[in-house]
């Protein structure tokens, strides 16, 4: 008898007991290997480097294959839809919603909110730009339908600047950094650690900082997979979620060690690392069917749709799938 078949027999009772909680999700699995997307500066990078994530899953007879790195969530989602990865890399909910609206069979299986938030719109100190109002007639680099774009939209709205008064330049982070450094764009809306590196490397400053200048949260980190995969592999999905929770809690409790792991990969200065440590960021996880969280998420999706960042409205509760524990 194979490990997979033996495990299915052991899980049969638990699966039957949980079926009434979430019809359509099998608390078993069709594979012993999970392919996880990863991106630099994220919980997935730390999970990959520490090795504890793989150990925790190995104890449940699950092998981990890392796919990436991905520069942002959109290509990570493409890998999931295309079948080269089972999970995205805990990226932004906004491009995931855009992909779902475009017909991708994706579901959210877990959410993560870190605080304080550190995404910012930066400009060079010698640019003559001192506020969001000064962006009129300027070029701003953002990632399309992602955290960078929506932060600029929110900043313009808060400062009564017409959206069409600013030119949006859609670039993925690896292309946006040199464009900003070379003066091809006047401003860049970006998240940590890339924005912190650029702030130092290009002698830049903030003109809008998410943690203090944004009045509400519109975008969240999310663990995304294909609906069919989640429905057929509830046991595996639950194991992955729980292993990531362990990583996120470790990061919250060990900020210096966490930032050192990211720094080792990104090769930035200790001053950038120490700044990130000083933020004292904490990770908070939410199950996919958390009613209070989904209410906030729906408000965020409505806001994005009303402003054309998402092409139309979407009922977020139709695209979440919670796998209960056994």
Automatic annotation (TrEMBL):
Pfam families: NMT1. PROSITE patterns: TAT. Keywords: Signal, Transport. Residues 33-254 form the Solute-binding protein family 3/N-terminal domain. InterPro entries: ABC_SsuA_sub-bd (IPR010067), Solute-binding_3/MltF_N (IPR001638), SsuA/THI5 (IPR015168), TAT_signal (IPR006311). It is found in: Periplasm. The keyword Transport applies. GO terms for molecular function: ATPase-coupled transmembrane transporter activity. SMART domains: PBPb. GO terms for cellular component: membrane; periplasmic space. Part of a binding-protein-dependent transport system for aliphatic sulfonates. Putative binding protein. Belongs to the bacterial solute-binding protein SsuA/TauA family. PANTHER family: ALIPHATIC SULFONATES-BINDING PROTEIN-RELATED. This is Putative aliphatic sulfonates-binding protein. It comes from Paracoccus sulfuroxidans.
């Amino acid at each position: 008898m194979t490990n997979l078949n033996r495990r299915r027999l052991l899980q049969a009772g638990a699966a039957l007991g949980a079926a009434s909680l979430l019809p359509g999700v099998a608390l078993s699995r069709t594979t012993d290997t999970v392919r996880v997307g990863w991106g630099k500066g994220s919980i997935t990078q730390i999970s990959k480097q520490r090795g504890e994530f793989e150990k925790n899953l190995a104890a449940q007879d699950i092998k981990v294959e890392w796919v990436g790195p991905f520069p942002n969530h959109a290509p990570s989602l493409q890998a999931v839809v295309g079948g080269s990865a089972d999970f995205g890399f805990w990226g932004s909910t906004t491009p995931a919603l855009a992909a779902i609206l475009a017909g991708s069979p994706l579901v959210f299986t877990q959410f993560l909110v870190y605080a304080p938030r550190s995404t910012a719109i930066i400009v060079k100190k010698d640019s003559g730009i001192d506020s969001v109002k000064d962006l009129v007639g300027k070029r701003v680099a953002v990632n399309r339908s992602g955290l960078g774009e929506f932060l600029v939209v929110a900043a313009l709205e808060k400062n009564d600047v017409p959206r069409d008064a600013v030119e949006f330049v859609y670039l993925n982070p690896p292309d946006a950094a040199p464009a900003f450094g070379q003066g091809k764009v006047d401003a860049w809306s970006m998240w940590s650690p890339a924005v912190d590196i650029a702030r130092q490397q290009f002698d830049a400053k903030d003109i809008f900082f998410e943690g203090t200048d944004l009045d509400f949260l519109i975008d969240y980190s999310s663990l995304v997979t294909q609906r069919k995969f989640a429905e057929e592999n509830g046991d595996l999905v639950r194991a992955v979620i729980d292993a990531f929770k362990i990583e996120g809690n470790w990061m919250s409790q060990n900020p210096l060690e966490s930032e050192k792991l990211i720094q080792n990969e990104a090769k930035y200065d200790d001053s950038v690392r120490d700044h990130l440590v000083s933020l004292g960021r904490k990770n908070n996880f939410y199950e996919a069917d958390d009613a209070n969280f989904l209410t906030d998420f729906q408000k965020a999706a409505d806001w994005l749709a009303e402003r054309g960042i998402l092409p139309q409205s979407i009922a977020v509760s139709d695209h979440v799938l919670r796998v209960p524990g056994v």
